[in-house]
Specification:
single chain, alpha+beta, Beta Polymerase, domain 2, Four Helix Bundle (Hemerythrin (Met), subunit A), 6-stranded mixed beta sheet, 10 helices
Length: about 260
């Protein structure tokens, strides 16, 4: 895969389209955190009155790099083509307007002749204490569902619930150790965590397969109990200790 070459060729083609007013990157390439396995998140800015016609030209522009072996359309932050090239490169092309551009994360400007992005100020992926408490509440309720599934010996469903628990706990860990990227959760979390905490999380996740339950969930619940103590006092004051402690104990008793 050659992300840089794909970016060069596709951004060059976009610059030739009269409707395109700016081209920029987001994601790992914009943050300069990319590696050989990274996908490309490219954005082009088009005026609202031009967007319908421009959307019809996107595929032709994307294939200037290589033929696509897969593509689909989505609308996450704007009309998007999700593409995979013959060399395996995953390339997402987003189309936004000046008014629809979301200001999350850093950008790397490739083309902006009218300085439309000059005043761009990136917002981070932080979460409020209220949002973290909501995630912990979901974690506790998932313990309830897990306990019932495990008692029924529905181990496939129990293992799936365990993965939800690990994902929720990852958000809390990210909030505590890497608050500016909290909402990213598990992705690249290993880079942010203290080695000891990372090893505990890995050990717990390794024990969430059907044949190792309930140990993994017990470990996740123990870790969650400790993490709550790290939250600000104002947040802990709103925390439903009674429900969590009740479920924590029930999970601990599983065999």
């Amino acid at each position: 895969m050659n992300q840089e070459e794909a970016v060069r060729q596709i951004s060059s083609a976009l610059k030739q389209d009269a409707a395109v007013r700016a081209v920029f990157l987001k994601g790992s390439m914009a943050r300069e955190e990319n590696d050989a396995y990274s996908d490309v998140d490219m954005y082009c800015m088009v005026d609202e009155e031009e967007i319908s016609d421009f959307l019809q030209r996107r595929l032709a522009i994307m294939t200037c790099y290589q033929p696509l072996i897969y593509w689909s359309e989505a609308n996450f932050v704007g009309p998007q083509i999700v593409g995979v090239y013959e060399d395996g490169l995953h390339f997402d092309l987003y189309t936004v307007t000046p008014s629809s551009l979301q200001r999350t994360d850093r950008i790397k400007v490739l083309y902006d002749p009218d300085q439309l992005l000059a005043a761009y100020q990136a917002e981070d992926y932080s979460m409020s204490d209220r949002e973290v408490l909501d995630i912990l509440s979901e974690f506790t309720f998932s313990l309830l569902e897990f306990e019932a599934a495990f008692q029924r010996r529905d181990l496939l469903w129990a293992s799936r619930l365990a993965s939800h628990l690990a994902a929720d706990l990852s958000l809390v860990l990210r909030h505590l150790y890497d608050p500016g990227k909290a909402a990213l959760g598990t992705k690249s979390l290993h880079r942010a965590l203290d080695p000891g905490i990372l090893q505990r999380l890995l050990d717990a996740v390794n024990h969430t397969s059907p044949d190792r339950l309930p140990l993994g969930v017990q470990q996740l619940a123990d870790l969650a109990d400790e993490l709550v103590a790290s939250l600000p006092e104002t947040a802990k004051a709103s925390w439903n200790h009674r429900f969590f402690d009740f479920m924590h104990q029930k999970v601990r008793e599983l065999k």
